[in-house]
Amino acid sequence: MENLKAEIVNIHEKLKDPVFLGSLFHVAASERENTNRILKTLLARLESIEARLRKLEGSTRPEGPRPPTILPDVDFEVMQFVKDKGRVYATDVKKRFKYKGTNAACARLNKLYDQGLLEKKQVGRRVYYYAKEVDVQKA
């Protein structure tokens, strides 16, 4: 017990010494620099591994035939209409399917675009939709 008290008093006295505190701060700062250097190296290695993984994932996608996409009747008919005409815009779909406004036709075409079945290109104020080479089936 006496030994422990003496050690505590000794440490307390050392903490009052500015040279000791300076060397303590210097050691802490150098350790922090070493830790930051190690973390930087680890981060660089992790980024290179992620890049290689992305490259491998991108190159190993199977290029075999995709299963046909099953569509509701109206969507299937819209797809057939787009394939037959080559390119359409919302007004064409509105007239063909007798919609009251172009909003419903535009929404249906955008839905098919979001599913990856159509491509779109804006020419002026009109947005034309083209059929992609995908296999679709009626539900």
Give a verbal description of the structure:
With 139 residues, the protein is of the alpha+beta class. The chain has two domains: 2-59; 69-138, Arc Repressor Mutant, subunit A, CATH 1.10.10.10. It has five helices and five strands; from the N terminus they run ααβαβααβββ. The protein has helices at residues 2-16, 18-59, 73-85, 90-97, 102-114, and strands spanning 69-71, 87-88, 118-123, 126-131, 136-138. The protein has a three-stranded antiparallel beta sheet with strand order 2-4-3. Helix 4 (90-97) packs across helix 5 (102-114). The longest helix is centred in the first third of the chain and has 42 residues, at 18-59. The protein is rod-shaped and about 100 Å long. The termini are far apart. The model has no long low-confidence stretch (mean pLDDT 89).
CATH superfamily of the largest domain: Winged helix-like DNA-binding domain superfamily/Winged helix DNA-binding domain
Share in helix:
55-70%
The CATH class assignment of the largest domain is Mainly Alpha
- Broad shape: rod-shaped
Total number of distinct structural domains? 2
Number of strands: 5
* Sheet with most strands: strand arrangement: 2-4-3
Element pattern in H and E: HHEHEHHEEE
Low-confidence stretches are none
Which class do the helix and strand fractions yield? Answer: alpha+beta
The main pleated sheet reads as:
3 strands, antiparallel
Query: Mean pLDDT, rounded to whole units?
Result: 89
- Percent of residues in β-strands: 5-15%
Give the termini distance in whole angstroms: 86 Å
The CATH level-2 architecture of the largest domain is identified as Orthogonal Bundle
Total helices: the number is 5
CATH topology-level name of the largest domain: Arc Repressor Mutant, subunit A
The radius of gyration is 34 Å
